[in-house]
Write a structure and sequence with these properties.
The chain is an all-alpha fold. The chain is globular and about 80 Å long. It contains 29 helices and no strands. Helix 21 (about 385-400) runs antiparallel to helix 22. About 80% of the residues lie in helices and about 0% in strands. Among the domains are: about 315-375; about 375-480, Tetratricopeptide repeat domain (Serine Threonine Protein Phosphatase 5, Tetratricopeptide repeat, Alpha Horseshoe), CATH 1.25.40; about 485-544, Winged helix-like DNA-binding domain superfamily/Winged helix DNA-binding domain (Arc Repressor Mutant, subunit A, Orthogonal Bundle), CATH 1.10.10.
Length: about 550
């Protein structure tokens, strides 16, 4: 006769099968029915954290700590205390985190020699050093954690230490060396050798390093891997929001802004369910889409919410300040952010620094930023880095009165952006090329470049960029309408308060075509909404 599985057996099986909710329910029943061994209480803590049940996870982990102490297993008790420090600090509960940190240190002081828990306790301290601009010191602590993980055959600790070493290398400017270390860590993760929570931490940190280093290929590869990993764990909340935030950033690069906004909002939804680490990314990416589309108030609110996490939303907020004609404020924002940034973050900010300094009219400062950006570049550099460098060079050369050289750099940047399937950045290069052609006495080529850029911006819904082109070509001040006859028909019906479905029926068009016409109208008129388009139309005599 077969003995039925107990709730504890079922809970353990569900955990290994990645059925987190089933696992927690079974473990909770087993706990209520007779209690759990400390290792299973710790398991329940992990499952609760993965499900976004942070308070419940902390409660389980504290219980596991006490149970291990009762059994005399000081090493495991200290490990639980170390995870409590990391979780509580990450949740913004500094006082409780510091209390557990002190407790963990006291436990370790009473031990005869080094242990794996000592390595876990080094991780939050090393992260603090990394975040406060001391990556060299942080790297030393991470290396010690890696050494302890290897000594005690603790795969999770070894991987976290290695992750920290690689991330520190990237922050110190040793990008390729750091990324190679991170690739090695990811091999352990994708092979299933690492527990779920350390694995999720590693995925998100590696993607952050790819972003810092402008490595689009790696970012695509590891974002897809993270998406698969989250997809295999459908009821997981922790880390899934961060996955969506990284996806949103890549979608913005590729011009899929509506989809990026939907994905960023999905990340925000995960935040509400218990994935607080996704907060900054979800709101920052929403701010980026709103800024590019010309929705200034919405962008400002999104950036402000992102800033509430304690991380400054740069360079987006500074570029928004340019749209708001707050050029001096934008310059102050960027210069302060640059002064406080580590090597990798400073490099990420340099292209926007060029934009801002040129907007203010400080060509010399823009040249210094360009030189810093271009200094390490060579033909072996990553394509995104080459595109950013050539783009910035074209901007500065135009400001310095060197249109021929600027045209060459803008063409080079356009080719790279085009190969990266980055339509907005490619269109910006065409604007630079048009300006250079105009200065070189070639108005026909200039008009061709401006028209191509304007059409791309209109398709993307990049209202401020369309307005910039109209300003350059003088169309913004002409009495004639920039709209086609069909777009004027659509605008008249929009002004009459008709929805897209009604307009489609009236003009014998599909709703999708009407939506595209409305998007083009908003872009060409450089306005953010249907109501604003109506006001513009009446004000400029486009409709009566």
């Amino acid at each position: 006769m077969t003995v039925p599985d107990t709730d504890l057996d079922l809970g353990r099986s569900a955990f290994h099968e990645r059925r987190w909710r089933d696992a927690l329910e079974c473990l909770a029943r087993a706990d209520a029915g007779g209690g759990l061994p400390p290792q299973d209480i710790e398991l329940a803590a992990s499952v609760a954290m993965l499900l976004g049940l942070n308070a419940q996870s902390i409660e389980y982990l504290a219980r596991a700590h006490e149970e291990f102490l009762t059994m005399g297993d000081t090493d495991s008790a200290a490990r639980c205390a170390s995870w409590l420090v990391m979780f509580l600090m990450d949740m913004g509960e500094q006082a409780r985190g510091n209390g557990w940190l002190a407790r963990a240190k006291h436990l370790l002081e009473g031990m005869a020699g080094p242990c794996a828990a000592e390595g876990y306790l080094l991780i939050p301290a090393a992260l603090g050093l990394l975040r406060t601009g001391a990556p060299e010191m942080g790297q030393g602590l991470f290396a010690r954690a890696l050494e302890l993980g290897a000594s005690f055959h603790d795969q999770d600790l070894r991987a976290l230490g290695q992750l920290g070493v690689g991330t520190s290398q990237v922050s110190l400017g040793h990008v390729e060396e750091g990324l190679q270390i991170l690739d090695e860590v990811m091999v352990s993760v994708t092979a299933g050798e690492i527990s779920p929570i350390p694995a999720g931490i590693i995925y998100c940190a590696v993607l952050g390093s790819c972003r810092l280093s402008h490595d689009v290929r790696r970012a695509h590869e590891w974002t897809a891997a993270l998406e698969r990993w989250c997809g295999e764990r459908p009821d997981m909340v922790m880390f899934s929001g961060q996955c969506q935030a990284y996806r949103a950033e890549l979608l913005i690069l590729h011009g899929a802004w509506d989809e990026a906004l939907a994905v960023a909002r999905a990340a925000e939804g995960r935040v509400r369910k218990g994935d607080p680490d996704a907060t900054f990314g979800s709101w920052y990416q929403q701010g980026e889409v709103f800024r590019l589309q010309g929705f200034v108030e919405e962008a400002a609110k999104a950036y402000a919410t992102a800033a509430g996490t304690g991380f400054e939303p740069v360079p987006g907020i500074a570029l928004l300040q340019l749209v708001q004609n707050k050029t001096a404020q934008a310059q102050a924002t960027m210069r302060r952010a640059m002064a406080d940034a580590d090597s990798a973050n400073r490099r990420r900010l340099l292209p926007a620094a060029v934009d801002v300094e040129l907007a203010v009219g400080d060509v010399a400062a823009a040249r210094l930023a360009l030189d810093e950006l271009a200094e390490p570049l060579n033909e072996a550099s990553l394509p995104l880095e080459l595109a950013l460098g050539a783009h910035a060079a074209a901007q500065v050369l135009l400001a310095e009165g060197q249109p021929q050289a600027a045209l060459r750099e803008s063409r080079r940047a356009w080719r790279t952006w085009y190969s990266l399937e980055a339509p907005y950045q490619a269109a910006r290069c065409r604007v630079l090329a048009g300006r250079a052609c105009a200065l070189l006495g070639d108005p026909d080529s200039a008009d061709m470049e401006f028209e191509a850029a304007k059409a791309e911006f209109a398709d993307l819904g990049a209202t401020p960029a369309v307005a910039e082109v109209l300003e350059l070509t003088g169309e913004k001040n002409k009495g004639s309408s920039p709209l086609t006859s069909r777009e004027l028909e659509v605008l008249r019906l929009v002004a009459g308060g008709h929805a897209n479905r009604t307009i489609a029926r009236e003009l014998y068009l599909s709703e999708k075509t009407v939506a595209r016409h409305v998007s083009n109208i908003l872009s060409k008129l450089a306005v953010p909404s249907r109501a604003a388009a109506t006001g513009y139309a009446f004000e400029h005599g486009l409709i009566h």
